[in-house]
Amino acid sequence: MNDITQTVNPKSTYVPIVDTNDRFTYIQLNKFEREEDIKTILNSIYEVLHDWDKAPTLQNIKDRFDVGTRVILQYYDDKIIGWWWYSPFYASDLINKEYELPEGGVYSGNSYVIKKQAPRSAGTRLYSHSIGYVLTKYNTMYGWMDNWNIAPIKLCLKCGGEIKNWMK
Ligand SMILES: CC(C)(COP(=O)(O)OP(=O)(O)OC[C@H]1O[C@@H](n2cnc3c(N)ncnc32)[C@H](O)[C@@H]1OP(=O)(O)O)[C@@H](O)C(=O)NCCC(=O)NCCS
Predict the structure, then answer these.
(1) What residues form DSSP beta bridges with 87?
(2) Which atom of ligand 1 is nearest to the CA of 153?
(3) Is 0.85 topped by the overall pTM?
(4) Reduced to 3 states, what is the DSSP secondary structure of residue 70?
């Protein structure tokens, strides 16, 4: 696991990133809904991340909801621009549980922003909102990223997280 960075965001150190732009809105889905918006993001993923062999299918997205995984959708001027996923256990695909997290833990992975459409601050705003939201329900958020993938690592740290190994 030398090529990945593991992050931990405790509730006690959460730092919101303040911004006055009020054109962003968020909706959490507890079940498969807003199919057109979901397809818009998937199509962007297939186009932009075309060599990602584990990109989710529409069926994978439906299966995620069945196991308790949830998503926060991000909109800008009511247009879908991003998503942020979380599960109450560790599952790298957000479907098949690999192990339980410590009590009060939540796993997040697979965030995505449609860069072609989103304003520059979308990633920052997505992480700030979503981490803040899950930390009202859970005590600690766990994540991991490929070492080269600096943006999500920096965003977790900016929201009060730290680099710390937690994976079994
Ligand atoms: C993850 C994601 C949503 C983040 O959104 P984003 O718009 O790219 O984030 P930003 O561009 O604001 O980058 C966040 C920070 O990392 C910095 N950063 C980005 N790439 C960097 C690099 N190569 N080197 C140094 N810093 C970098 C940015 O400057 C920014 O820091 P700042 O706010 O201090 O300027 C987006 O990158 C994405 O959709 N990625 C594809 C899917 C993915 O990898 N998801 C994560 C799975 S763990």
Answers:
(1) 107
(2) 16
(3) yes
(4) strand
